[in-house]
Design a protein that fits this description.
Elements lengths: L8 E2 L2 H4 L4 E9 L6 H5 L15 E8 L10 E8 L15 E7 L2 E7 L5 E8 L1 E3 L24
Parallel strand pairs: 4-7
Antiparallel strand pairs: 1-6, 2-3, 2-5, 3-4, 5-8, 6-7
């Protein structure tokens, strides 16, 4: 049985970003392409709308420290929301690098590449937040500190 084109698979954040994820740069509107000819005619670009949910699309670049291949260390993720999402606070002053946890994450398989084709993924999420108990960019909570047993001493 073939899987229909455009099928989105729901996944947990930690399945995709096992060592956490971080936003690099701003959250920006995902705009439709407008050719130079259309620009000359005065056509203005419009923000893309997701065909499945009807929500506005926002783009963000995500750094994935668990990626094995260089081309997968930085991915573009689309956030579906009515208003522009606000990323978590900057973790390191002076750097636009923000640890993040994505909610409602879906992936869609897609053929990518120009000359050499390969299987890639389209990432979408419906929300983002700061990771709970994050340790310098990792999405996993910190382990609890060991408690010394005073009765054994």
């Amino acid at each position: 049985m073939p899987v229909p084109r455009g099928t989105r698979f729901e996944v947990e954040h930690d399945q995709v970003f096992s060592e956490g994820a971080a936003i690099v740069g701003p959250v920006s509107a995902d705009m439709e392409y407008v050719s130079n000819e259309d620009k000359a005619r005065g056509k203005q670009p419009k923000q893309r709308i997701d065909e499945h949910t009807g929500l506005l699309q926002w783009k963000v670049t995500v750094s994935d420290p668990s990626a094995e291949k260089d081309r997968e260390k930085s991915v573009s993720l689309t956030i579906l929301a009515k208003v522009q999402p606000v990323p978590p606070e900057t973790a390191i002053a002076g750097f636009d690098f923000r640890p993040v946890y994505f909610e409602g994450l879906t992936i869609e398989p897609r053929v990518m590449g120009e000359k050499f084709k390969y299987l890639g993924w389209v990432f979408r999420a419906v929300g983002m937040r700061a990771p709970n108990g994050a340790a310098k960019g990792h999405g996993k909570p910190l382990p609890a500190a060991p408690v010394a047993d005073k009765s054994a001493a």
